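Feature request disguised as a bug report, sorry. It would help if multi-protein outputs had a clear separator. Right now it looks like this:
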Amino acid sequence: MTTHDTSPMTTPASAAATRVRPQPRGWALAGIAAGLTGLVGIQASMALGVNWEETAGDADAIIADLSGRTATLLLFHTATILSALLAVVFAAGLSRRLSQQAPAGSLLPSVASGGLLLVAVAGLLGSGLDTQFMFGLADVDLIVPESGAFFSDWIATIPWLWVGAGLSGVAVAVAALRHAAAPRWLGWVGAVLGGLTLLLGISPLQYMAGFTGPLWLLVTAIGFAVGDRR
């Protein structure tokens, strides 16, 4: 009597179905763009205040100086708002990526994404007065000098509030170094750049976080885009 093998056979179709598919990297690419545009926005903000010492205390002089920087104002606005929007996309992807390996119920993915949402809010608010003044500077007689001086201070401070990126960096560091939820080298990047950004943001030198925060975001996003195999 002939016996038949009843053990299940793996077909090419079933093997393909069980193969681990690489995760999409669009969120990481969005993070790269967010970091780059964040750096551009910070540099544009610095350029807008390049004559600060010469104009300090003189509202009319501040308005006159800004009136000749329309192109830089446009660059600042575009880069800052793009960075804010792209940071939201990266935050969502980062939360999903960390959740894949972080302990069940861990707060780390939410903290990592929440810090970047704070950055996005700062960018949104930091560019929020641009329309009111950017085109109004074409006719300085229509602008109250003191309001224009306040706008100059606004764009030189609020968009620099990148302390949330420091919180995200530290969360990534803990997730990577303690729970192996991300590559270890990205954990060290988070510990160094993220930790420095967080400390600067907490300190009275809080605006210095605008230098290190975008850099942490850029390096981390590149790492997840090209150096993360999950």
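(second protein starts here, but nothing in the output says so)
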Amino acid sequence: MARQDRQTHWQGVYTTKSDTEVSWYEEAPDLSLTLLHEAGLMPGMSVIDIGGGVSRLVDALVDAGQAHVGVLDLSSAALGAAKSRLADTAHVQWVVSDVTVWTPDREYDLWHDRAAFHFLTTAVDQQAYVRVLARALKVGGKAVIGTFAMDGPEKCSGLPVARYDSESLQAVLGEQFRLATTRRHEHTTPWGTVQKFQFSIFEKVGGQAPGHQL
């Protein structure tokens, strides 16, 4: 799917459905917070949430006194809805962008992506994502990436997805990132369907990202 088509799709989703009417809705981002803490989350760190949409993760991080939180999404409607919930947005950066073409203006300690990367189904888009991740994350920083597992859904929101285990995700990220830990997770949608995910934490260790010459 072309970048403009992706943006049109997700803007449409977030202008026609409430947050509880999408399959990825969760009342509280408990697993994301657990994994971020496993990755070393501390109040003085900067965190970027990729494909954050209307997730409650930003609320939890702001409430915890996080020094800097970035939320990136293709949909301005989604970010507007998330922003409207917060009384204090002084430490939040809202970024309306496709992650594959985003130019970070700072380096982050932690990168969080719950179910955005798996919508990138071509090698070109996947490599573009990895290049942005490499630019955005500090050496020694951690990336928490959640995707559908190998036995997870083949589509979401009407779109095809790429499914992963930790080994295949490591192969896409390349030698610049080292797998620290991984776990499986079963997410229950608002209508009771179980979706199988895998979440992995990677540390940026240096080297070159795949496809750097493109």
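Even a blank line would do. Unrelated, but nice: The chain is about 30% helix and 30% strand.
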